[in-house]
Specification:
The protein has helices spanning 2-22, 68-79, 82-98, 136-142, and strands at 28-30, 47-49, 57-60, 101-106, 113-119. The protein has four helices and five strands. The protein is α+β, with helices and mostly antiparallel strands. A hairpin with a 6-residue loop joins strand 4 (101-106) and strand 5 (113-119). Helix 1 packs across helix 4 (136-142). Helices cover 36% and strands 15% of the residues.
Length: 157
């Protein structure tokens, strides 16, 4: 279960990274909050990207100008721009590295033996350390992907 969860997380982050790298470069702006974009002709009512070398480019149309829900949607889209997604992917990869498994050893002298895998960063419980991995951090990192077909309910925190 341990290696599967780490591989699952790494695969999901690779997909997010790929999509973010293929997306239009920002900075992204919500047209409802930027005077710079008010004079853009056409049906672009909500979200724009403004790459310095290309001027204004329509990214997403979320509704009619002045539609409050459209502007809320536009703000959400603009806040989750590719640069932010790439930064979040990097942070999550670092967290995964901090919480990789290590072997817990027990016994003394000739009885020294590997007992179980535990998290590199988390303190294993005194009783039943074999239940300590995957740790809560990894389980929580996987939770946003609970609707993915490869997500395992056993990972749920």
């Amino acid at each position: 279960m341990t290696a599967e969860l780490i591989n699952f997380l790494r695969d999901r982050l690779s997909v997010e990274e790929h999509v973010a790298r293929e997306a239009t470069v920002g900075p992204w702006r919500n047209a409802g909050t930027s005077r710079h974009h008010e004079d853009v002709a056409g049906p672009c009512e909500a979200v724009f990207a403004a790459p310095p070398d290309r001027g204004c480019t329509c990214i997403a149309r979320t509704g009619a100008r002045g539609d409050r829900q459209a502007m809320v949607d536009a703000e959400h889209i603009a806040r989750h721009n590719p640069e932010r997604v790439l930064a979040e992917v990097e942070v999550k990869r670092r967290l995964i590295a901090l919480h990789e498994p290590v072997i817990l050893r027990g016994g003394g002298g000739a009885e020294y033996f590997n007992t179980t895998r535990v998290c590199r960063s988390c303190e294993p419980p005194k009783q039943f350390p074999e239940t300590a991995y995957p740790c809560q951090t990894l389980r929580l990192l996987a939770l946003p992907y609970a609707d993915h077909p490869y997500y395992q309910q056993a990972w749920r925190p």
